[in-house]
Amino acid sequence: MADNRRFGRGGVYTCTECDKKTRETGEGESALEMCRSCYLEGGHINSVLDGNMTVTEFEKMYEKPFPFPNLLPEDESDES
């Protein structure tokens, strides 16, 4: 078995969203087995769904369409 102690708690793992090899960076992402980028994007998706960020803000930040327009209330899904 490889010695992954130099990577800290949990060592190296594969992100469940993008398949990138990654490690814990201090954001708490290893609990969900996600890389930092996917973990933070997931948080921003939650912010949109909770109404704390607009779809337009998300799309400008990530330069791509909001991934779950079907989960938005009717009046927000047409915003972008």
Topology:
Layout: E1 13-14, E2 21-22, H1 36-50, H2 55-62, H3 74-77
Antiparallel strand pairs: 1-2
Main-sheet strand order equals: 1-2
Helix/strand-derived category reads mainly alpha
**Straight-line N-to-C gap:** 49 Å
Average per-residue pLDDT, rounded, comes to: 86
What does this 3D model show about the protein?
The chain is elongated. It is built from three helices and two strands, in the order ββααα. The chain has one domain. Strands 1-2 form a two-stranded antiparallel sheet. It has 80 residues and is mainly α.
Give a concise summary.
The chain is mainly α and 80 residues long.
Features:
two-stranded antiparallel sheet; single chain; 80 residues
